[in-house]
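Review box. Two proteins, two foldings.
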Amino acid sequence: MWNIPQLQRFIKRLPTPNKLQIGNVNFNFCTIGGTFDRLHIGHKTLINVALIFSKRVLVCVTSDQYAKSLRKIAAELIEPYDLRKKRVEEFISSLGKSNATYMYKLEDPYSPATTSEFAVDIDSIVISNEPAVTERTFKLNELRLEYGLSPLKILRIPLLRDPYGEIISSTRYRLNDFFPPPRPPELRLTNEVIKKIREPKGAAITSPKYLPDYQLFKKSGVIAIGDAAFVNLLRFGYPVSVALVDFKIQRKGVSYATFYCINEETKLIDVPPMIPVINPPGRISTESWYATLIAFVQENPTIVTVYGEEDLLGFPATMLAPEGSLVVYGDPFKKKLIYFIVDSDHKENALDLLLKMQSVDVGNKQ
């Protein structure tokens, strides 16, 4: 089936499983900033984290003059401000979040959160874990104190890496040095496979305490599919490598925040990358394969957040996961957790069902 074997060869192991925290961490008005040149999955993840943790988001896009002053590699190839801004707006609109965002032309790294009309209301910022960015954000908080403003809570996410192990960056896109996203057809669920899909793929349990010892999966990894499974694992303290969620349990919206750790002294909250993907109900979208692939090749636990439904994303997860990985998902009919350890039989069964789905070639949105 198209290039699944080629994708599988990039995934030798999943992110090292780790215990994530779950708690009441949310904000009223968050800010993010960047050049957003060649809008890519790293940018989208940064924006998505802000949208998940905050009710409103101020999206600051560098002006052409400011972008030029940063002396980036191949700066002459940076897209013009209007195009970069438009692509950010279109992406946010595709998530249905336009009403939660405000756009701002960025002329320097500090004014939006110190002297702009929004400064008083901003309470948080999302940044990457680049040391220079962290130091600049600490300086921003010092400036806010000088202006009589409260320091911002800092949500910090790791930079995403591609299947080559290289950091995903606009510079690499400008230089035409990037991992090309796979372009499988979109697949639609058919009546022929619905019954098969509903059959449990493994053992049914009532609690994560009945799962195998997580130490067995330190090298191969642990995958949680669906919010019911993920939240159960979080609350039990069972380590996770990758979660695929849509913030719904039995079609009802749920709200929770997950993070690595909080440092109250520095205001730093380290959070997992939360890769956004659009996946309509009853389908496996083209871009869901790429989002799953990118999540699987990170070093630290990573979350794929689905706009639509994650119900069928167990297929890309099973097909791309290394053999020996643990998969846990919730069965809404039995109201239990189902788990299985990925092996060649699971991959063959998944492929057989994929081949029976209807192909809908809609191109690649990622």
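Next protein.
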Amino acid sequence: MKNPSPVLSIGIVNWNTKDLLFKLLSQLRDDVSSLSREIIVVDNASSDGSADVVKEYFPEVVLIENKKNLGFTKACNQIICRMRGEFLLLLNTDLTVEKGGIDDLVEFIREKEDVALCGPRLVYPDGRLQASVRSFHTLWTVFTEITGLSRLFPRSRAFGKYLLSYWDHSDIREVDFVSGAAYLMRASVLKEIGPFDEDYFLYVQDADWSYRVKKKGWKVFYCPDVTFVHMEGETVKKISAIKDFLSHYERLIFFRKHYGIGKAWLLYNMTIKFACLKFFVARLWDILRNKKRTRSMRWIFLYRKFGRALLSRERIVTLPEIAEKSRHGGDVLGFLISYFTEENESNRN
């Protein structure tokens, strides 16, 4: 006899964060819930024994083991295909979950039938507020970000629009999108809208899904009554060298998809010009202070090359397709890491 479907499916994507994964799964086990739950972990070909930890200590968890790193987006879609709950909560492994907070979050979205997605308040381990709510990027918000105006004038509604930094994040509010670190979705809307767009490898899929959801008339809400601690960046620390490239490149995909090719070209040119300007100003500042620091333009070169190809073709060629043509056989992270590693080695030589 088949087990009845749970109310909540909790999905976790893991890549070489064994200790964080163990800590999170232990918290979820200790968090006594009134809701029936299932937990699904997708391990993206970790080399640190993460999958063995799940098998040994958490046999109740559904484990999907990938033979290669398929990226965050595809791994999330594997969870979506496997889930049986009315709601899906996607969690990063670098979260500390407040006891009872998950139930409260589910109760919140249950009471609001027009809400497709909601997220909690996120804070850093020291208690500082984390920017977990954002507006959809526009050419203006990208300009304020890359020029530093958003950091210089965070309380300004004009310059702080993307991160909503002029708002204290203390009240429940409808927003454009919430951080993918803790992302509670309604399963019925997933069936209507579809899963994440796999043209994105690591970033922006959360904004893209929210954008598609809102176009269909659904709402996205921020729920500050629930607070999770998020060690932001821990899950991508091992690939920090390529983070700039991926975040800018996948933002360009979003612009092409939703704002048109004209605005995408404007974004492409603006990003390159200001990134180069910031690089040379930083190098000059280092020279004036007699500081020896290794600064790289590698991500800018890669963005210029792949970004131009992205905007010049009739269809979007994904990063896995690009990596497939390399010696890494579709392994995007292997392809990108080798690209940056080769530069570091040439710098040392």
